[in-house]
Design brief:
single chain; 364 residues; alpha/beta; Rossmann fold; 8-stranded mixed beta sheet; 5-stranded antiparallel beta sheet; 38% helix
Length: 364
């Protein structure tokens, strides 16, 4: 058992079962032993690979998308560029390089990274030193509160999927929360809370779900989306959210654990494996619209990237590439855009203030 696993066992012995949301929060963000606090989990040597690590084209398209938004906002002299969960800083490095082609944009940017991992902050600082000195924050509110009155451009790629969720299972007596507890051998296991939870916690569309159905609720993600939408409504800007998920309320257990690019049991090695869930884009869309922002998508990642000109960019890179590089470029383009790969599994949604028009990448 991992060090964090031993701690959780002691915690449950003392305080009783914990929610899956609390388990995820400890497993990923525990200050000493949380997964993201200890190491660089990305790439071939890590546990998983994100889109920015597959190809520079991904970050370049995102940078140009936000750059065009800045132009359409009237090129304000100061704008806060914020990335949530920036990983190694690869996406932002590629985005800023692309933004250099837009006169005045880099000078207008104040760069903010919402990142809790000390290890990743060091890598990000090294990656971005050629372009901008970032300011780091532990949560989005720490950026938005002091920035009031000034517009923002926000990027959230594979951020919402790592936020803690609560799970509820439908039984004959109602929706019971799934909890992490101990079995007779003091191993971590799952059980249902003895009493049902209030039904209003569950999306109305799922109230008539079959017995045995599992509903996931990500209150943390909903609150972050609400913060972003409310800020953009008042002070202007745009936010781009990219993640794997679903477009309509749905039941199902989407919590998964990954180590060394393979799926493992979610309770097997807390603190040493990545934990994610599928993002409920329908719920994020409802929240954004409730704050009277403009809403775009969700749409397929493949369609979005192609509409921004990623195919043309790949051709430009191919023209100057070696044979080995050509194969890498073609493979990356296929992986990011094809429906059989990340092209349709990953969803893209954007929101903006109501004064911003001509937002690219979405069918109107």
């Amino acid at each position: 058992m991992t060090v964090l696993g031993t701690y959780l066992i002691k915690l449950i012995k003392t305080q009783g079962p914990i929610t899956i949301a609390n388990f995820m929060a400890e497993a990923l963000s525990n200050p000493q032993h949380g997964y993201y606090m200890k190491k660089d989990p990305f790439g071939k040597e890590g546990d998983f690979t994100t889109a920015p690590e597959i190809s520079q084209m991904f970050g370049e398209m995102i940078g140009l998308w936000q750059g065009v938004n800045w132009l359409n906002m009237g090129s304000p002299g100061k704008i806060h560029l914020i990335e949530l969960g920036p990983g190694r800083g690869t996406l932002m490095q590629d985005a800023l390089r692309a933004m250099k082609v837009i006169p005045g944009l880099l000078d207008a940017i104040e760069l903010h990274l919402v990142e809790i991992s000390p290890a990743l902050r060091k890598i990000q600082a090294e990656k971005l030193k050629e372009y901008k000195r970032p300011t780091w924050h532990n949560k989005i509110g720490d950026v938005l509160e002091p920035s009031k009155g000034e517009p923002v451009l926000i990027i959230a790629n594979e951020f919402f999927d790592a936020l803690p969720v609560r799970q509820f299972q439908k039984t004959a007596t109602g929706w019971h929360e799934r909890l992490v507890c101990l079995d007779h051998q003091n191993n971590l296991t799952l059980q249902l809370a003895p009493a049902p939870s209030p039904e209003q916690i569950i999306p109305t569309a799922l109230h008539r779900a079959d017995e045995g159905s599992i509903a996931e609720v990500c209150t943390v993600g909903e609150n972050i989306c609400s913060e972003i939408a409310e800020y953009i409504r008042h002070y202007g800007g745009a936010a781009l959210i990219m993640d794997y998920g679903y477009d309509a309320h749905s039941t199902g257990d989407t919590l998964q654990a990954v180590k060394n690019h393979k799926y493992v049991d979610i309770l097997s090695e807390p603190g040493d494996v990545d934990l994610t869930t599928h993002v409920n884009f329908h719920r994020l869309k409802q929240i954004a619209l409730s704050h009277e922002t403009r809403l775009y998508g969700p749409t397929d990642q493949g369609k979005f990237l192609k509409s921004l000109g990623m195919e043309a960019r790949s051709q430009t890179l191919l023209a100057k590439a070696s044979e080995k590089q050509k194969q890498e470029i073609l493979t990356a383009f296929h992986r990011l855009t094809d429906a059989s790969e990340m092209g349709s599994l990953f969803r893209v949604m954007a929101l903006s203030d109501r004064g911003l028009t001509d937002v690219m990448g979405f069918e109107q």
